[in-house]
Amino acid sequence: MAKTIEEKQYLVRFNCDTKSHLEVKDHDVCATKCPDKDCTIFCPADVYKWEGDRMFVGYEGCHECGSCRIGCPFDNIKWEYPKGGHGIVFRLA
Predict the structure, then answer these.
(1) pLDDT > 90: what percent of the chain?
(2) What is the pLDDT of residues 58-72, one digit of tens each?
(3) Which residues does residue 51 pair with via DSSP β-bridges, in sequence order?
(4) Beta 22-24 vs 54-57: how paired, if at all?
């Protein structure tokens, strides 16, 4: 039986660094120029959350797909690979 996306995401494990590999370059851009907050929609891991007047980044659950770096219409997300030994660990079973 095929697994759902949610079931597959549950298999993903993370070795989190203490420093984020994701950064919103300018929070004012999110607040004033981006009414749809696209990153909160297309990130498959729900890393980006708009709360009040600020974008919060839960980098600990990042799948490292790069969709935020590509999809932000204002190029307002700095995305780097986590430093060696940190980040996502996939399990196939």
Answers:
(1) 39
(2) 988 888 888 988 889
(3) 54
(4) unpaired
